[in-house]
Amino acid sequence: MNINNEDRINFMGKIEQLSGQKVLSCYQCGKCSAGCPVASAMDILPNQIIRLVQLGDEDVLNCKAIWFCASCFVCASRCPKDIDISKIAESLRSIKLRKVFDYLSIPKIPSEVLAEIPQQGLISSFRKFTSY
Predict the structure, then answer these.
(1) DSSP per position, 57-93
(2) Exposure winner among 28, 32, 48, 121, fewest CB in 10 A?
(3) Assign residue 20 a region: left if phi > 0, alpha if psi is -120 to 50, beta otherwise?
(4) 12 neighbors 92 (Cβ within 8 angstroms)
């Protein structure tokens, strides 16, 4: 991995701006990963996500873990530095969606299905799987 310092700072700064979290505050204690209820399904652990962001490694956008985050806030409640990784995961998903494509096509959802889906589920899906 050969990332120049300016690119690293720009990527990390973008994540901090979107999430409101101080990424460099993390000192890799691992409490977030130890408490994460979906860590066993992730390809990389929550603390590893933070580390890749600290390193400015944009390959973190390709990991599946950012999509598995349940936003349950266990990580934030355990973090001694008060870092909320769910906000960082949301920021990473937003950047990924803006760079690539939408995983959910709103016009392709049948109107019958739209009528039955609870509004909260619908809006959260749009936030998580589209760039709208």
Answers:
(1) -GGGGG-SHHHH-----HHHHH-TT---HHHHHHHHH
(2) 121
(3) left
(4) no
Distance set, CA 66 to CA 5, 44, 48, 93 (Å): 24, 9, 11, 7
What is the C-alpha separation between 101 and 107, in angstroms, rounded? 14
Question: DSSP class of residue 46?
Answer: H
Q: What is the chain's pLDDT, residue by residue, as a tens digit (132 residues)?
A: 566 788 778 889 999 999 999 999 999 999 999 999 999 999 999 999 999 999 999 999 999 999 999 889 999 999 999 999 999 999 999 888 777 555 667 778 888 888 888 877 777 776 666 654
**CA atoms of 90 and 32, how far apart (whole Å):** 16
Report domain extents, the chain: 5-100, 102-132
Both tokens of 81, joined, read 């530095």
Q: How many Cβ atoms from other residues are within 10 Å of residue 44's Cβ?
A: 17
pLDDT at 50 (0 to 100): 96
